[in-house]
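During the no-cost extension, the postdoctoral fellow (Dr. R.K.) reprocessed legacy sequence entries with the updated structure-token encoder. One reprocessed record is reproduced below for audit purposes.
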Amino acid sequence: MEKKTVDWDLAGAEAIAHFKALLRIPTINPPGNERPAAEYLARLFEAEGIEHTLLESETDRTSIVARLRGTGKKGPLLLNGHLDVVGVDRDRWTHDPFAAVEADGCIWGRGAIDMKNMVTMSAMTLVLLKRSGVRLDRDVIFAGVADEEAGSRKGALFLVEQHPELVRSEYVLNEVGGHTLFMGAQRFYPIQVSEKGICWFELTAEGEPGHGSMPHPGNAVVKIARAIAALGQARLPLHVTPVVENFLRTIARGAPLPNSMVLPLLVQPALANLLLDVVQRAQPERAKGINAMLRHTVSPTMLEAGSKVNVIPSSARATVDGRVVPGFSARQFLDEIQAVIGPELRIHVLEEHEGTQFSSDTPLFRAIEGALRRHDPEGVPVPYMIPGFTDSFAYARLGAICYGFSPVRLEPGLEFTSMYHGHDERIPREGFLWGQRVLYELVRDFCSCP
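Re-encoded structure tokens follow.
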């Protein structure tokens, strides 16, 4: 265990300073340019005498891997965080998204939740372990990676495929888990054990070209519009995994009426859509997340057609974001899409990978539960599946067991799901500091020699 106790006032202030510094680096992807953030972390590790390596898949698409070595008696634990962030609509933000403004008890900025909080907490965990002289039974690895927001090819996948010796591990802790979820007065802490796969595809409609003054039914723009409207209104068939069913039944036990009755019934095909409409009217943000866990989902995101206002084009295209329930292939997903849009339109897959599922019956999962209960005895840890994907799918290819656990304590009224990729992304200052301590003590206790 620790030879030197952590002074949490000093460590917390240092973590906040590093967190704000990283938030001020605009690593928007595309184009990415994660190098300044990776170099910032390299300077931190260099000052602490922590072994680290900078790696680039392309110019400025930089990742960093650092390692504290243990006895090797047990397999390594990898702490992962992506350095890139999605873009912003500055006019829709209350505060500058790259100024790391502290206001209303929160630290505001793009990446505050997704996921420079975990990057900072993980890097600081290595620093504090080193300073405290903790003797480790297993290596503790930190990976700050590029390109997660665009599919991970230039970051985690690059490391897994080109430098597997640096990131091969028994366990991975990653994003989207460990945040507070309120059901009535009950606090839950979802821990990600599963995530959806992706099937990003282009949809093409062919038609008869012509003059815009003479409408006709073969207009490719009209055909693509009908297909998009059909996809936007469709709820694809129900596919309930055991993780999702257990999640809904668990949170229902803490929920007030009518949620306590409605949530368990959402897994019943005959009732699911009707009851989801009920939830949608009362809690639209929560309904979006639940719906996405229950089935494959599809969202048209980009359109392209024509080049001149008075010319009916011969083709029109839509780019579509498809998310696939674990255990299903892209082909099975696309069969459901074709049933909605009909056989006339052409589908071209741009990117796809299957979802992941990991057992919660492991020593690390039990350690996560224990850490949460020590820091919030009334909180209830619960395994769950996220409707998106993370870098975990890449590390799974090396045989790692991956969990989403980026702990943060939230107050009622601040919904985690509305934070990432949204306007006014922010994290409570005290919730971040709480998460830093939870993560450090989890890693220390799980990885240290008896």
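The two ends are 7 Å apart (CA to CA). The first strand starts at residue 51 and ends at 58. The remaining legacy entries will be reprocessed before the final report is submitted.
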